[in-house]
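Feature request, filed as a ticket because there's no other form

It would be nice if the structure record came with a short human-readable summary line next to the tokens. Right now we just get the raw output. Example of a typical job, pasted below so the devs can see what we mean:
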Amino acid sequence: MLAQDIEVLNDRIRQESAFVEQVLAEMGKVIVGQRAMTERLLVALLADGHVLLEGVPGLAKTLTISTLAALAAAKFQRLQFTPDLLPADLLGTLIYDHNRGEFIPKKGPIFANIILADEINRAPAKVQSALLEAMQERQVTIGETTYPLDQPFLVMATQNPIEQEGTYPLPEAQIDRFMLKVIVGYPDRGEELEILRRQTGRPAEPTERIITPDSLLRAQQVVRDVYVDEKVEKYVVDIVSATRKPSDYGLADLTELIEYGASPRASINLVLTAKAHAFLRRRGYVTPDDVRALGLDVLRHRVILTYEAEAENITSEEVVRRIFDTVEVP
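Raw output as currently delivered:
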């Protein structure tokens, strides 16, 4: 791409991304700290991908998602996942209409723009699997009829990593549908002091609507236009390939630790999230730093380790960091 084309694209991105700072400012009225989580939710929203938030209770995961949905003026549904939940409770079902003498569809709560799947690992596999078609194909089948979901459509799920009783680990096919898996940490001392004051004082002012679903769809299209150089594309492919054949990249010691590497969906999501990250930084082009900024969130749930790695208490995050530290940056 020519230099003048890049400059034109930069100007367009700066205009289209003007709402980003407004969104972050409004989020700051409700959420203290957690800037990384907020930015990653915005990345998922702009890159049209789903996100899984993992963290202990009380870290404002649910509040952050519901606040973001309110700022986007999007149709929002919160689904509390429980062990007795059924697929029909999410997707809907067919009910018999006595007056018409036929079955008619009763659409479920999944027919919304932003879905909060709260504590998704509390529901059994049959319920988790019910989300697969909706998350990948953006459609739902009820009976013999398939219904397209409204756009934009995003699933933002939360899970608690510390409780094992009454939980069902997400299968690989399900977790691979999430563009990002974000680990949510504790606030620092200053942030917790501010949380304390806000939550024990007067209620916060209601947030203002910043964007609409239509403007969000337009922003998603602009994100797709962000320029990615061929060298950066090859860098992404090298990163993902290193999770499958680490010995080809001078990481032979990882061969015995990785059971399965990342799928091509990882490469796609690395590029899309890098584009969205560049958009947030109001740039019309992607740099390797954009890839590295979100690489851990894209790959941590896609690299499956062996029993030997687990026995040595080696995590997928450590493996991914080794790969990023070793693969040559263009």
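Something like this underneath would help us a lot:
The mean pLDDT is 84.
The domain at 226-326 is CATH 1.10.8.80 (Helicase, Ruva Protein; domain 3).
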